């Protein structure tokens, strides 16, 4: 009965090649953000921004994630999951364009627009993966997380060369408005395909009694999810791993430059950090059910970031090594975090709520990472103190990994 009701509330599963489009959506959930790091210094110079203001800019996407994620449930209920994804793709493209061509105000406004749209994808992509790949959740999570990482790594690698080729960072950042438009067109075709087979359910879906039942059910699910301690463990893990990823994605080029590497080499370090995560993300699902829990996977994914932090503090000249080690952590940690959302949610409705809560509060925690790193760099005149704080946060992630990896008894 519950599964039938959820099928009516949330969109019908796709079949065939239409299912795989979710992975193309995933490719577009990070480039708009990841493209900033390699050109952040150029932006600071052109706009006369100090490291503190740059830190605020890098934190805005995470703050937007935190603010928008709780609202995604209401959007999905109003227009459906698939239509929400289509709207998100269009807004990512629009936000990229506004940031590049909207002047000084446009940088901030465009960032808010595309980040808010990405938040919709962040919450709903795990739900779609669980729905369309119900028998292979860990595998699907690994693939779409790999796609997220691949999109991020590609943007990080190409951002600086495109800026050099096209005469500035604005044109380079504007390029990333094109891919989401292409995927939006394909996603619209998927929606049209699905609608041919769900028209018959429209009358039941829109009846007053069904709407009342959904409203009461959704309130009950939300309250139940908030009462579970596991919700907050998942949230903490999501926040800590996201903090590490976004801090390094935005500041690793600056760290590399501070120890003598040129801009091109610093960009390669960032690519290593982001690119290696594709492979670690695909491998970590093999550890997702060791002894019936996810402790092994969560700790294996978390420990390398702590090691990388220590490495950047002690022998920083080995930055390529620490970029590789940290990259192994960030790719695997994202897969574990998203898989935990899917595994700890007991049905589709609960998974949507858990995803919204974990990503809302998790990204609020994460926003402090790049922001505080930039503030501490400006306050101390170097990267040593910020890296000490970063390493401590990575250690906290290891602690939370042990707790969140044990399935809840409730």
- According to DSSP, the number of beta strands is 0
Q: Enumerate the spans where pLDDT stays under 50 for 5 or more consecutive residues.
A: 1-10, 199-207, 209-213
Mean pLDDT: 84
Question: First CA to last CA: what distance?
Answer: 22 Å
Please give the oligomerization state of what you see: single chain
- Major sheet summary line: none
Order of helices and strands: HHHHHHHHHHHHHHHHHH
Strand residue percentage: under 5%
What global shape is seen? globular
Q: Taking Cα atoms only, what radius of gyration do you get, to the nearest Å?
A: 21 Å
Give the % helix. over 70%
- By DSSP (H or I, 4+ residues per run), the number of helices equals 18
Q: Based on helices, strands and strand pairing, what is the structural class?
A: mainly alpha
Provide a descriptive summary of the structure in words.
Helices cover 83% and strands 0% of the residues. With 410 residues, it is an all-alpha fold. α2 (17-27) packs antiparallel against α7, α5 packs antiparallel against α6 (81-101) and α13 runs parallel beside α17 (348-380). The protein is globular. The model is unreliable at 1-10, 199-207 and 209-213 (pLDDT under 50).
What brief labels describe this structure?
410 residues, mainly alpha, 18 helices, globular, disordered N terminus
Structure summary:
By secondary structure, the chain is mostly helical.
Write the layout of secondary structure elements.
Blueprint lengths: L1 H8 L7 H11 L3 H4 L5 H8 L3 H29 L1 H21 L1 H30 L4 H30 L2 H6 L3 H18 L6 H5 L1 H20 L1 H30 L4 H21 L11 H19 L5 H26 L3 H33 L3 H21 L6
Helix pairs in contact: 2-7, 2-8, 2-10, 5-6, 5-7, 5-17, 6-7, 6-10, 7-8, 7-17, 8-14, 8-16, 12-17, 13-14, 13-16, 13-17, 13-18, 14-16, 15-16, 15-18, 16-17, 17-18
């Amino acid at each position: 009965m519950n599964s039938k009701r959820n099928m009516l509330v949330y969109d019908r599963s796709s079949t065939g090649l239409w299912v795989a489009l979710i992975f193309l959506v995933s490719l577009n959930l990070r480039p708009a953000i990841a493209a900033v790091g390699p050109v952040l210094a150029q932006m600071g110079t052109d706009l006369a921004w100090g490291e503190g203001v740059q830190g605020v800019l890098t934190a805005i996407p995470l703050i937007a994630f935190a603010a928008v994620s709780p609202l995604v449930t209401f959007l999905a209920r109003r227009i459906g999951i698939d239509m929400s994804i289509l709207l998100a793709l269009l807004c990512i493209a629009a936000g990229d364009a506004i940031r590049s061509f909207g002047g000084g105000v446009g940088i901030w406004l465009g960032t808010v627009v595309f980040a808010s749209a990405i938040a919709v994808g962040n919450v709903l992509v795990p739900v779609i993966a669980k729905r369309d790949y119900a028998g292979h959740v860990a595998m699907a999570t690994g693939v779409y997380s790999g796609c997220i990482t691949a999109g991020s790594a590609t943007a990080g690698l190409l951002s600086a060369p495109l800026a050099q080729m096209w005469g500035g960072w604005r044109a380079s950042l504007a390029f990333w408005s094109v891919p989401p438009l292409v995927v939006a067109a394909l996603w619209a075709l998927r929606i049209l395909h699905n609608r041919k087979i769900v028209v018959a359910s429209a009358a039941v879906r829109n009846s007053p009694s069904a709407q009342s039942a959904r409203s009461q059910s959704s309130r009950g699910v939300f309250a139940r999810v908030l009462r579970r301690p596991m919700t907050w463990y998942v949230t903490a893990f999501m926040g800590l791993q996201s903090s590490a990823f976004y801090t390094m994605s935005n500041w690793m080029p600056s760290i590399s430059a501070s120890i003598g590497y040129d801009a091109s080499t610093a960009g390669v370090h960032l690519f290593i950090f982001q690119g290696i995560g594709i492979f670690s993300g695909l491998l970590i699902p093999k550890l997702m059910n060791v002894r019936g829990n996810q402790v092994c996977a969560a700790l294996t994914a978390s420990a390398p970031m702590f090691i990388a932090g220590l490495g950047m503090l002690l022998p920083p000249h080995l930055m390529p090594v620490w970029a590789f080690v940290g990259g192994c952590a960030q790719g695997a940690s994202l897969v574990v975090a998203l898989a935990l959302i899917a595994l700890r949610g007991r049905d589709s409705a609960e998974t949507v709520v858990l995803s919204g809560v974990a990503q809302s509060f998790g990204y609020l925690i994460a926003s402090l990472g790049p922001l505080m790193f930039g503030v501490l760099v400006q306050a101390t005149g170097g990267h040593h103190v910020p890296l000490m704080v970063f390493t401590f946060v990575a250690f906290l992630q290891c602690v939370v990994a042990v707790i969140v990896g044990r399935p809840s008894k409730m």
